[in-house]
Structures are given as C-alpha cells and as structure tokens.
C-alpha cells in the first residue's frame, strides 16, 4: 500500500496549529532550566504521562501551565523554529501559525516580546526551512471582549507581522457573538478572520462565526455535519474547515478515529483540510494526522489530493504567489 508514502510526501499547507501547543516536553524542560521556572512534573516522561484529556478544558489547563516557561523573545523564536523543522520534515510548504498573546501578557510579558520572537522565526523560514510561515493572533474567548480589544490594540504596532485574527480557548459558553465588535474592528483594519467553532460547541456557533464575525475559515467545524442547511452553506460558499483529527480523538470529540467525519465532510464537497492543532500534546504532527486518519477511515489517493489542494486554496497565501505552491 503506497498511500501512506503519498500522504507523507505530498506538498501541503498547515492552517491550524497553535505554536504553544507545539512545545515538546524536552524543550519545555530546557526553557524551564534556562529561565529558572519550576515545572509541576519531575521529568519529561512524567509530563508526557499527564497528557490524558477528557475534554478541551482539561487540555487547556495543562497547555496553559506549559506556557509558563516562555519568557524571552528568544524562547518564542526557538519554539517556532522547532515546529518549523518538524513541519518541513512533513513536506509542509506553508504554515499559518496561531498564537495567543493574552496567555503571555497574562504572565507579564509584552506583546512585542511574543510577536517579534515568533515573527523572526517566520521571516527565517524560507532560508532555514524552505517554507513560508505567517501568524494569526487568536483572542482567548474565555476572557472578555474588552480584553480582546486591549490585546488587538497592543498588537497594532506589530500589525505588519500578523496576517489574521482568530478565536480560541474554551468554546462552550463563549459563543462567537461575544466578540462581534472586536472582530468588526479587526476586519476594518484589514486582518483576515478565522474562528474556532463547532469543535465541542454546536452548529449554531458556526453560523454565528460566519454571519456575525464574518470569518473566512472555520477552525474544526466538525459539528457542521449535524446541520444539513449549514453543510449546504459551507459547500456553496466554499468555506474551508481546518479539521484536526488527532486533536478530536485526544479531546474525545470522537471516541475513535474510525468514527471521525472527515471522509463524510470531503465526500459532501466541503473544503476540509487536515491539521495538527497542538501536536506536542495530541500525539502527532501533520503527517501523523494524515496517515492515521486515512488508515482509520479507509480514505484514498483522491481524498489525499483533495485535502492537499484544499490546504493551499484555503490558505491566506497571496493569490499572485499561489501558483508557486500548486
Ligand atoms: N487552543 C489550543 N488548542 C485549542 C483547541 N483545540 N481549541 C480551542 N482552543 C485551543
Ligand atoms: Zn485549535
């Protein structure tokens, strides 16, 4: 069977990956030592053993604890380079990296420390890793819209280093409508817009991400399958879904990969892409998401080609440059 080889070797873009979720335990311990931060676990193995989650919130709590080791611009640069090296090994030609400034400003860092470190790695990506990388700032939806406005304001001096704005963190109880005004502002400022919706939350959150926030892509979006009218809307308007199968498995959105709806979404004509979300926590980078999911669902080379093509079509790569990739 040559499908796994095809999946690994095909050129692809990654559109849904939180850089803080790429921080491997080894690097976390190295940064903890460099910055004199005490971790709650005695060693790498004990930390990895703690990566068992029953839902999104249990993951977010551990993810947040891990970010405490990030202190300097160099830390953000080093974390991003580690991810870019892994992405290059998976034949990723372009990646759009999520980050949440508020996690770090909440620990006393400045937005400039975060954004400048991340951006320096993205700027080095073509020469160092043979790929392109851009940044999407995600507001934390468990915080207030007022706090999102403050976050946007603090990022504006680094405006040119950010391609888009997204919405992440605890979904249930924090519908897109909560951020209507700040997304309208981001839109006026010319940012591309995305939002997590329909991961654990209902299809109605996908509707409001589209109609209230006016996002161009939906992150996760797998719950759309419960709403035929929404499925029709997504197909008709070619709204991409950035699907993260191993994440959905680890956070128990689906009990097994064989029950994941990626194949059904693709066969319905949805512009679905495959992504790793938080690869250090969910058991695999992009190619691992492709190979495990395609095997579990019995997907074929046509699905492989479609998801790779979708990843470039759904990206925020300049239309004029897109022909370089596909
Ligand atoms: N932040 C990091 N990973 C996330 C996910 N899967 N959903 C929501 N927020 C996140
Ligand atoms: Zn995510």
Quick summary of this structure?
The protein is an alpha/beta fold and 326 residues long. It has 17 helices and 8 strands.
Briefly note the CATH topology name. Answer: TIM Barrel
- Counted up, domains total 1
Global outline: globular
Largest beta-sheet details: 8 strands, parallel
Sheet with most strands: strand arrangement: 1-2-3-4-5-6-7-8
CATH class: Alpha Beta
GO cellular component, one term: cytosol
Active site: 199
EC number: 3.5.4.2
Function: Catalyzes the hydrolytic deamination of adenine to hypoxanthine. Plays an important role in the purine salvage pathway and in nitrogen catabolism.
Q: Describe it for me?
A:
- It contains 17 helices and eight strands.
- It is α/β, with parallel strands linked by helices.
- The chain has one domain (3-314): Metal-dependent hydrolases (TIM Barrel, Alpha-Beta Barrel).
- The chain has an eight-stranded parallel sheet with strand order 1-2-3-4-5-6-7-8.
- Strand 5, helix 10 and strand 6 form a beta-alpha-beta unit.
- Helix 1 (3-9) runs antiparallel to helix 15 (286-297) and helix 5 packs parallel to helix 7 (111-129).
- The longest helix has 19 residues, at 111-129.
- The model has no long low-confidence stretch (mean pLDDT 97).
- Bound molecules: adenine and zinc ion.
- Residues 18, 21, 56, 168-169, 196, 199, 247, 277-278 line the site of adenine (ADE).
